[in-house]
Amino acid sequence: MTSDAQALVQQLIRPEIQALSAYHVPPAAGMIKLDAMENPFHLPEKLRDGVAEIAHGVALNRYPDASAAQLKVALRDAMKIPADSGVMLGNGSDELIQILAMAIARPGATILAIEPGFVMYRMIATFCGLRYVGVPLKEDLSLDVEATLAAIEREKPSLVFVAYPNNPTGNLFGADDIAAIIRATPGIVVVDEAYTPFAAGKSFMPRLAEFPNLVVMRTLSKLGLAALRLGYMAGAQALINELEKLRLPYNINSLTQAIATLVLKSSSALEAQAEIIVGERTRVFHELAGLAGVTVFRSQANFLLLRVPDARASFNALKDRQILVKCLHGAHPLLDNCLRVTIGTPAENDAFLNVLSEIL
Ligand code: PMP
């Protein structure tokens, strides 16, 4: 049986899929979890009461509202989405990246992204049989504008991803540079604003009308609602209308719709938490900068990238002390001996800093 199945795999599954490793999520039970850019704080008590009421009243026997109409109204309002732009919802922004890739998939079509960047851009290109071109950042992790514009000219990508701020580097590229990329690209440019809540309001959302090929993508995951899996993107209505055809029916479940609508109506509660996270980011940055052997990079996101003498050893030693961070050594040449740590609660950050200073 096993060898039959193996033969089937060889025969049917595309070689590039066989060569992939599945997206790895390490077990985290009992750990201080600083590896996935989640908001470390629970929802405020009052909102949790509202969630309990929703859970009690929701009609689980019925399919969700396929157009998620109420949620879209709340989202447009809370996130200041221009009234004449289209909006589309995904089961996390991961799903939206996949829908965008499916929409442009044809032989020879190309996705271009900045590297190191969010790994799903490359993975989803592979899922959809697309060419993928990564343009490296400069040694100091700043955007290589000339190289990016040259690659766009050469590769004529159908789809470009720029995360603003970038993951895993945490920095925010120049708005003028991104605007130049959008203008130079013959295809769609997705400005992925997953970390915008921590970037002092820097966003391309108000500039949608300027660029017909711009899509602004966001998520509620980093803001405190990772469990709900809700991503959204805004862009020209005509483009969103086409992308909507690729969305599976009912991709946003009823609990997510109702809970996200409730929370977005009180979004100041999440913004207040984001403010605490930004304050902690500054504190942790300065503490890390004072540790011998550590280089820490400036961040506009809810995490910090740091270089240590031996990232694998530090990762393992932290893990032995129940602290989970992300080891990026080996992920990209620019990330040698780098770790990425999500900003946690003040107590979690202290635990991380104490253990790191002990083990270095
Ligand atoms: N974009 C970027 C830049 C990210 O870092 C992430 C999550 N790590 C995502 C998108 C996906 O977020 P989600 O699917 O949770 O919305």
Automatic annotation (TrEMBL):
- Its recorded name reads Histidinol-phosphate aminotransferase
The record's keywords, sorted A to Z, are: Amino-acid biosynthesis, Aminotransferase, Histidine biosynthesis, Pyridoxal phosphate, Transferase
- Record domain Aminotransferase class I/classII large: where: 31-355
Please describe the quaternary structure of this protein.
Answer: Homodimer.
Q: Which reaction does it catalyse?
A: L-histidinol phosphate + 2-oxoglutarate = 3-(imidazol-4-yl)-2-oxopropyl phosphate + L-glutamate
Specify whether Transferase is a keyword of the entry.
yes
Q: What are the EC numbers?
A: 2.6.1.9
Alphabetical list of HAMAP family matching this protein: HisC_aminotrans_2
Upper lineage is:
Bacteria, Pseudomonadati, Pseudomonadota, Betaproteobacteria, Rhodocyclales
Q: Specify whether Amino-acid biosynthesis is a keyword of the entry.
A: yes
